[in-house]
Amino acid sequence: MSDKELLLSPIQVGTRKCENRFFAQSMECSDADAEGNPSELTYERYENLFKGRFGMIDLEAITITGESRSRLAQLEIMPKNEKALANFIKKLKAVNPDALIVFQLTHAGELSNPEFSRRVSVKNVPGMEGDILSEEEVDHIMDQFVLASKITQDVGADGIDMKFCHGYFGSQILRPYNDRNWKYGGSWEKRSRFAYDLYERIQKEVNDKNFLIGSKVSLWEGFPGGFGSAGPDSPLMDLAEPIDFLKGLEERGAQYFVETIGNVHSTISFVEADKDHPYLSYLHMYFANEMKKHLKPETVVIGGHFSAFRDGKNKLLAVTPEQSSIVAMGAQCINDGMMDMVALGRQSMADPLQPLKMMEGRDNEIKYCTSCLNCLELMIRQENIGCSTFNKRYTKILQDVRNAKGKVQEMHT
Hints:
The protein is of the alpha/beta class. Helix content is 35%, strand content 13%. The chain has an 8-stranded parallel β-barrel with strand order 3-4-5-8-9-10-11-12, surrounded by 4 helices. The protein has a two-stranded antiparallel sheet with strand order 1-2. The radius of gyration is 20 Å and the shape is globular.
């Protein structure tokens, strides 16, 4: 089987058939309407991913609350949004009924933007101080996640991605830095309690073996005390808790995991490698492999950070272009048992039609992400987000915001 044939081959995720190995990452694009519903711009983006024949698509960080959120125009999932989300899914499924779509449910926590929402924290991180959450408030957040999961099911989506990554609330509560002596902090047993109890409640609420439940997990946040470190102030990597966490979620019904590392505020380069440092993408293979080593064979591991490999035209040294493309590197990772699927984030914005073009033999027409990070700059500026290299709409938005405010100097949220 060729590299391309492997990536275009089907795979089982839980009880569901996924038509190929391409996973479209959750990419926040800040284009919801005033009520947090999908806009025409939102629909256009996801319609392209459905047309592009991605096997599985992750709906961008849809917030369970309007009170604490990171984006001004963020998609929301509450009872008020149910009708609009049902219509959204109905339209997308009409485009391609074979594509699976999961909703990445999120609460921003300390990454909430205080300019328009309430920043909250389980324990204040320097430079990200917010209101300290009480046990009762965390219990309420859990209620909101359970309700959002049920809404996801009711509107016709195929499952959820319960977000435990990149410094958002789900990962904040897990980190050793959360050493408060309270219901959800201190010992590992207490820090993992929120996630484990939440998974059990979601399973009971949706009560459907065909509804996919999984998580995107930052196995290592990459700063002292972050998840995957050896202690509350230790810079040393220690994967004992992350591996135990994955197994705990698997025992509670997780059918898939999306690999990632880093934190969008403190260690953004681990999340999004720039064009001069594509080799940071190699780190993700190690973490995906650690997932595969410790999970059941049928639990699907989706490896990330492939956009930097492009078509082999990158700045990687000590390797040929033929060996270092998205297709070659992705197929090798699957063949070597490191992962089961390949996740594309920025690349899915650069060319949402990539899988379709590969199916039709139009590989030479694929547009490849240049790792310019202009989409990150648009995110920081709270603008509509898209590929400014290949989509003139976002080129103009970027030009206008730079003319008005100058270029962003610090590339982190």
